[in-house]
Amino acid sequence: VPEKDLSGLTVIVTAGPTVEPIDPVRYLSNRSSGKMGYAMACAAARRGARVILISGPTSLKPPHGVELIRVETALQMYDAVMEHFPGADVVVKSAAVADYRPKAVSPQKIKKHGRDLTIELEKNPDILAELGRRKKHQILVGFAAETEELETNARQKLESKNLDLLVANDVTQPGAGFGSDTNIARLVYPGGRTVPLPKMDKLLLAHRILDEVQALRKVQQ
Ligand code: PMT
Questions:
Q1: Which one, of 140, 20, 134, lies nearest residue 74 by Cα?
Q2: Which residue range or ranges hold the DNA/pantothenate metabolism flavoprotein C-terminal domain (predicted)?
Q3: Candidate list 30, 124, 153, 162, residue with the active-site label
């Protein structure tokens, strides 16, 4: 691993799930443990970057030396990311952001009754797509958790969100995606290049992604 090759850079990493309240005791969320994002933050900090880790609820210990901002909902994550974006050089969006939130949050616990219950959902803003619109010098790295059509869906996300790199993981494969200590990723670049990677420890993958970020910065300069 290169020593301190990111010193002087500010890196925003998002991690974990978002949780979207239904009522005071219930929420909608997803299976993200935060491991991938915390590994990204850990790797970037070890390489000398100033790291702002914006994290949904996880049970993980924050890596040494990172600035941790805890959030719960996608809207809170949106605000925290936008606040720090102008001063950032790199953004890595490993969080699994909820695409939808309950339209109305019940102030009281919803009571059981004899009928079925429908919860209406409204769309959350896409944080990464907004960064893609606002970006100036920043390198934007997205993740894509897919269960089908990995490459087609990944390429569509890369282009529609104006990203510099997208890390696609097929979360149906054992040892990839949510919860595990390893991941199996495919790096997808603008212009059609893709690089399939073997199953790797998430920390090793994080360093590999940061190597790619460094290569992209060199091209940009
Ligand atoms: O946390 P772990 O248990 O270690 O699991 C890791 C992981 C599977 C969560 C991670 O590797 C991963 O794939 N994260 C992205 C999951 C995801 O939300 O993918 P997506 O295809 O729905 O979103 C694509 C990209 O847009 C992501 O970078 C996401 O952060 C971003 N996004 C999505 C929706 C939204 N409203 N705002 C966003 O910024």
A1: 20
A2: 6-215
A3: 30
Report ipTM (2 d.p.): 0.98
Which of ligand 1's atoms lies nearest the C-alpha of 145? 13
Q: Assess whether 30 carries a catalytic annotation.
A: yes
169-185 pLDDT tens trace: 999 999 999 999 999 99
Secondary structure (DSSP) of 7-67:
TT-EEEEEESB--EEEETTEEE-----SHHHHHHHHHHHHTT-EEEEEE-S-SPPPPTT-E
Q: Which two tokens stand for residue 46?
A: 């070890």
For the chain, give every domain's residue range: 10-110+117-220
- The residues lining ligand 1, judged by C-beta closer than 6 Å to any ligand atom, are 32-36, 74, 93-97, 99, 124, 126-128, 142-145, 157, 169, 171, 177-179, 183
As to burial, measured by CB atoms within 10 angstroms (0-12 exposed, 13-18 middle, 19+ buried), residue 120 is exposed
Hey, whose CA ends up nearest to atom 33 of ligand 1?
Answer: 97
Asked if residue 170 belongs to a known ligand binding site, the reply is no
- Select from 184, 172, 173 the least CA-distant residue to 143: 184
Our mutation pick for probing the ligand 1 site, out of 14, 38, 81, 97, counting the most ligand atoms within 8 A of Cβ, is 97
Reported as a single tens digit per residue, the pLDDT across 183-214 is 999 999 999 899 999 999 999 999 999 999 99
